[in-house]
């Protein structure tokens, strides 16, 4: 199947330092938010993007939609290089890929009614004659489980779950082929989270939508996504079918992340966390593999150089020095101390 969205060696940096940094670029404080990401998604596919806070998930999602500019690398949507699009053609692309945000209240204009918020999308993108907008808005509201009676209300009169349904409706209005949902349920109560996840599953299936679902929550990713990409300090360290990655993680970071899900022992105690401390700052990346200072399996090569990003082990892609060609060629599973 042809690729819908593809990033190629994508890098995003944030430079800070005020006037001093403008006069002397070498003095700028540079955050390496996305560091050479190559990833693709096909039409109708659901992919989870998971990793600790600050690892670059949101920035990657935003760069995929050109809401933030890349420093280098490419983003291609259906064969078109987004990094080279002028503003007029970018507006056309915005119909095909949309974002859903974490905070449903903040994402809506508090002064506009729900009906006006949705009607604005039909008008800006000239999606239908103005006489049909009210009917389209009512249909759209029903498709996300909102009564059209709520059209006259403002966001403050809605619950968090209802606001997120409006956010989803606004994204769907333009008939996109790809949704990027950035922590779209993490601000909601658990019972409401399940309803919104079910809605997203249903909409993706009905409309053959591709979904990139950004989340800290491994349980949610497992429930929702066929494929998962695990991110650490700006890089994808492992990527593959969700069930394969979750049942036999290759990368020590994925392994530690999965082992960090709190599970109570029969005696009521909690096992010690497997992932200790915070990730290093994205302004000062460690030499070699970025995970090496926290990796229990690190050895000399991990400190000497970054691992190749595209090594395949069956259906899984892994960026780790433990997966050298000779180990993969002989199908020798690694173990601690097996270097
Ligand atoms: N506009 C910005 N200006 C400067 N630095 C930024 C900006 N946006 C993000 N960053 C930095 O880029 C890095 C990646 O941030 P990002 O928000 O993409 O991570 P994340 O994995 O989505 O985190 P979270 O799960 O907490 O949302 C962080 O170090 C963050 O502080």
UniProtKB/TrEMBL annotation:
The family database entries (SMART domains) matched by this protein are listed as:
AAA (SM00382)
Where does this protein reside within or beyond the cell?
A: Cell inner membrane
What Gene3D superfamilies does the database record attribute to this sequence?
P-loop containing nucleotide triphosphate hydrolases
Q: Name one Pfam family in it.
A: ABC_tran
- Name any GO cellular component annotation: plasma membrane
Example GO biological process term?
A: transmembrane transport
Identify the stretch annotated as signal peptide in this record. none
Domain ABC transporter, which positions? 5-258
Task: List GO molecular-function terms, semicolon-separated.
Answer: ATP binding; ATP hydrolysis activity
InterPro entries reported for this sequence: AAA+_ATPase, ABC_transp_ATP-bind, ABC_transporter-like_ATP-bd, ABC_transporter-like_CS, Oligopep_ABC_C, P-loop_NTPase
For whether the record's keyword set contains Protein biosynthesis, the answer is: no
Q: What is the recorded membrane topology of this protein?
A: Peripheral membrane protein
Keyword ATP-binding listed: yes
Q: Which UniProt keywords apply?
A: ATP-binding, Nucleotide-binding, Transport
PROSITE patterns to which the protein is assigned, alphabetical: ABC_TRANSPORTER_1 (PS00211), ABC_TRANSPORTER_2 (PS50893)
Where this protein primarily resides, as one coarse class? membrane
The family this protein is said to belong to? Belongs to the ABC transporter superfamily.
What protein name does the entry list?
Answer: ABC transporter ATP-binding protein
């Amino acid at each position: 199947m042809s690729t819908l969205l593809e990033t190629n060696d994508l890098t995003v940096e944030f430079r800070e330092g005020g006037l001093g940094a403008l006069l002397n670029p070498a003095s700028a404080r540079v955050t390496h938010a996305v560091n050479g990401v190559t990833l693709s998604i096909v039409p109708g596919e659901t992919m989870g993007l998971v990793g600790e806070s600050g690892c670059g998930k949101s920035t990657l999602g935003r760069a995929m939609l050109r809401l933030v500019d890349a420093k280098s690398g490419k983003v291609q949507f259906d064969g078109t290089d987004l990094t080279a699009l002028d503003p007029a053609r970018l507006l056309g692309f915005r119909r095909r890929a949309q974002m859903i945000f974490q905070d449903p209240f903040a994402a809506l204009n508090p002064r506009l009614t729900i009906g006006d918020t949705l009607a604005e999308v039909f008008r800006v993108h000239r999606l239908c004659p103005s006489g049909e907008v009210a009917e389209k808005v009512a249909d759209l509201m029903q498709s996300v489980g909102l009564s059209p009676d709520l059209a006259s209300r403002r966001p403050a009169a809605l619950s968090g779950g209802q606001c997120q349904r409006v956010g989803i409706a606004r994204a769907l209005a333009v008939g996109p082929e790809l949704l990027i949902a950035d922590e779209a349920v993490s601000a909601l109560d658990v019972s409401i989270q399940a309803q919104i996840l079910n809605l997203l599953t249903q909409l993706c299936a009905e409309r053959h939508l591709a979904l990139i679902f950004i989340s800290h929550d491994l349980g949610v990713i497992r429930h929702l996504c066929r494929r998962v990409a695990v991110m650490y300090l700006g890089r994808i360290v492992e990527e593959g079918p969700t069930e394969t990655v979750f049942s036999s993680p290759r990368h020590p970071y994925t392994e530690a992340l999965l082992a960090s899900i709190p599970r109570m022992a029969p005696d009521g105690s909690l096992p010690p966390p497997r992932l200790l401390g915070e990730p290093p700052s994205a302004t000062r990346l460690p030499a070699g593999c970025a995970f090496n200072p926290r990796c229990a399996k690190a050895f000399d090569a991990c400190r000497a150089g970054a691992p190749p990003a595209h090594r395949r082990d069956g259906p899984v892609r892994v960026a780790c020095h433990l997966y050298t060609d000779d180990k993969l060629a002989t199908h020798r599973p690694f173990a601690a101390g097996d270097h």
